[in-house]
Amino acid sequence: MTPVIRMVAGSHLYGTDTPASDTDLKAVFLPSARDILLQSCQDVVVTQREKTHGERNQAGEVDETGFSLHRFLDFLGQGQIVALDMVFTPPEFWLEEPHPVWHRIVGSRLSLIGLSTASFLGYCRAHAERNGARGARLAELTQMARFLGEERASHGGAGRLEDIETRLRDFIATSNFAHTAIVMIDQPGPNGAVAHLSCAGRKTPFRTKLSDAEALLARAAASYGARANASSNGSDGKALSHALRVGYQTRELLSTGHITFPRPEADHLRAIKGGKVSAECVGQELEALLIEIERLADSTSFVGVEPDRALRDDLICHTYKNAIFELEKI
Q1: How far apart are CA 263 and CA 258, in angstroms?
Q2: Bridge partners for 182 per DSSP
Q3: How far is it, in rounded angstroms, from Cα 172 to Cα 181?
Q4: Alpha-carbon dihedral of residues 323, 327, 329, 330, nearest 10 degrees?
Q5: For residue range 71-123, what is the model confidence (pLDDT) as tens digits?
Q6: Each residue of 7-34: pLDDT tens digit?
Q7: Considering the domain 1-114+306-330 in this protein, what is its CATH number?
Q8: SS3 of 292, please?
Q9: What angle, 0 to 180 degrees and rounded to 10, lies between the N-to-C axes of helices 136-154 and 122-130?
Q10: What is the domain partition of the chain in residue ranges?
């Protein structure tokens, strides 16, 4: 794999990092020429330390997620937050000189971004609601159960987790989940390690029916919701700050066609993250922000404009063709 770009992401990019923060890196890469020709490209590559169940990153630890060029441009065309963050990340957060195609992407980013009123605004509102006072674990259980329900419906009520592995991995990789992953668990017998979906501590093997996996997570969400409501406030400062930041970025993008990093509201977000602002106050601010975003979405000219798919295809074809030509010289 050839790197296109590697950059600092997460709290160190947003300006909300604390002494306890880990380091999040994002990257785009070119698959090898052989993988391109054999159509066996790995679309998402995650590099991180193996952790025991329930273990979280320690201060200073580094996680890196890389996306193949074609998958990254797909995410950008869908208006995915992770891709939007990356194309607006300033050069001072780049870890190395990028491949020439990255400069073309950044120079044409507004043409490559897909922003529809329904999907983008809906994502922002749902993200805020999911990461509100109920907490991040409940949010991920609810979101995963909904995703599996949609996949089950598209399979006519049938299908298993193993049938949707690629879409499942993509969904997890682009959702900024802290408590959801695909893990390998050793099993007795000749099969050895078996892939499992792990969500907020609930694990289910890939051979599980979609309907059963959906029901498991829905039940877990219901029980977790009851516990969260019974706690002192049920809130998660980190999740609340994350939701509000997404709203701030959305408002700026719709207003100016740009996203600023580090975030101008970093001090306020850090206070929320540290539990110094009540969940009620944050909720009121979120609601007002989302109302403003809805108004902007109705009046912004580039919302609803389809991404330039011809440009996307040209970037991929030109870059991958050059990679294959380089292989022929060897």
Answers
A1: 12
A2: 197
A3: 7
A4: 140
A5: 999 999 988 889 999 999 999 999 999 999 999 999 999 999 877 644 555 65
A6: 999 999 999 998 888 899 999 999 988 8
A7: 3.30.460
A8: helix
A9: 130
A10: 1-114+306-330, 117-133+235-302, 135-233
